[in-house]
Design brief:
The protein is α/β, with parallel strands linked by helices. A 6-stranded parallel beta sheet has the order 2-1-3-4-5-11, sandwiched between helices. Strands 7-6-8-9 form a 4-stranded parallel beta sheet, with helices on both faces. The protein is built from 13 helices and 12 strands. Strand 6, helix 7 and strand 7 form a beta-alpha-beta unit.
Length: 377
């Protein structure tokens, strides 16, 4: 009897186990493939999450300016033009702007390199002494643009007016006004500055081509109107019958004032050249009111070269190549801005342009986008 009960219990347990196993899902032979598909889908999703929805914004560009002399309104306008162009392009700026010597300017440029700027605009204090630091900047990927002078080298570009021709234009005009004969003096700018050196080369070439013009005196006015006025007064006193005075930039007005104050009758005034600044044009116009036959000339030296240089550097950083056919100058690495001459025929027009401008304002000119674009391939 006990054995029958045991057998019955065993049979019930066996049937129960069979039922449980029948309810369990059958193993699928495709499980490995499905797992692989799931893993691949997850991986793709994770990869998609890591990719940005849009491109990261480009790093903001930073341009530096190195200027070693601040003794004129021209330099102040140059700085303002640099800042203006940078603001138009959304570029941050670092400025080294102080009176200093050549070692000081080298330190300025090294400071800008250390700050990680993308481009440096340099108004150089010397033609040769900066070449090593310019090469250092170029080696670190910095675009270097020189303004207001030409420096040799294939590691930078000069964006300037033709300083030699700028001076030669007014020197030729003076020679023509004197009929190719007479005694003149010259009052030059800051000795050793590249722009001054190139200008005086231009004047020297004009005088060499005109042997009837005799250079009887040379001095520097240090690009300071008051200094130039004193120098001109001394020349007039020391050279009776002086026929002409050639000078440049802000010193021209000082020279004209010295002539007016000399006590000489108008018919004996030495012929002078004028300047393209607010006060210079106003002094010119004032003399014309008293002496309608007074004649003069001024050639604009635009501080807008700093504005143009920013746009040139920006285009270079954006990957554009300068058209080598557009490069010129004695070193073959210069982009020349056009020159603008003011004379008796267009003086009234330029007088209108300076209405409301300060006496120290230098007449200016920016390259148009089309003109800058034409410099590139």
């Amino acid at each position: 009897m006990k054995s029958l009960k045991a057998i019955s219990v065993l049979m019930v347990l066996t049937m129960f186990l069979i039922l449980i196993s029948g309810c369990a899902p059958a193993a699928s032979t495709s499980a490995p493939a499905e797992e692989a598909a799931v893993e691949e889908a997850v991986a793709e999703e994770e990869e998609a999450v890591q990719e940005p929805v849009s491109e990261e914004p480009a790093k903001q560009l930073v341009f530096g300016l190195s200027n070693s002399w601040i003794g004129s309104e021209w330099r102040s306008q140059m700085l303002a033009n640099f800042e203006l162009a940078a603001s138009e392009l959304g570029i941050a700026t670092e400025v080294e702007h102080a009176d200093t010597d050549v070692p000081g300017q080298i330190a300025q440029i090294n400071n800008l390199i250390a700050k990680g700027v993308d481009a440096i605009i340099i108004n150089p204090a010397d033609i040769t002494a900066l070449q090593t630091v310019i090469a250092d900047a170029y080696a670190q990927g910095v675009v270097v643009i020189i303004i207001d002078a030409e420096i040799p080298g294939d590691d930078h570009v000069n964006v300037v007016i033709n300083q030699k021709e700028w001076a030669a234009i007014s020197a030729r005009w003076l020679v023509d006004k004197l009929g190719g004969e007479g005694d003149i003096v010259t009052i030059e700018g800051y000795l050793g500055h590249p722009a001054n050196e190139y200008r005086m080369e231009g004047v020297a070439e004009v005088l060499a081509a005109n042997p009837g013009i005799h250079l009887v005196g040379e001095d520097t006015g240090m690009w300071d109107p008051a200094t130039a006025q004193n120098v001109a007064a001394n020349f007039i006193a020391a050279n009776p019958g002086l026929d002409g005075i050639w000078t440049q930039d802000g010193m021209a007005e000082g020279t004209l004032l010295a002539v007016e104050a000399s006590g000489l009758p108008y018919e004996e005034w030495p012929q002078v050249v004028c300047e393209a600044r607010g006060s210079g044009l106003r002094s010119w116009a004032k003399v014309l009111e008293e002496h309608p036959d007074f004649d003069c000339i001024a050639v604009i030296n635009p501080p807008g070269c700093a504005y143009d240089a920013v746009y040139v550097a920006y285009n270079m950083i954006m990957g554009r190549e300068i058209d080598t056919d557009k490069l010129g100058g004695q070193f073959g690495n210069t982009l020349y801005k056009p020159l603008t001459v003011i004379d008796k025929d267009n003086l009234a027009e330029w007088m209108e342009s300076i209405e409301g401008k300060a006496d120290g304002y230098t007449l200016d000119a920016f390259m148009t986008p089309e003109e800058i674009d034409a410099w590139f391939k």
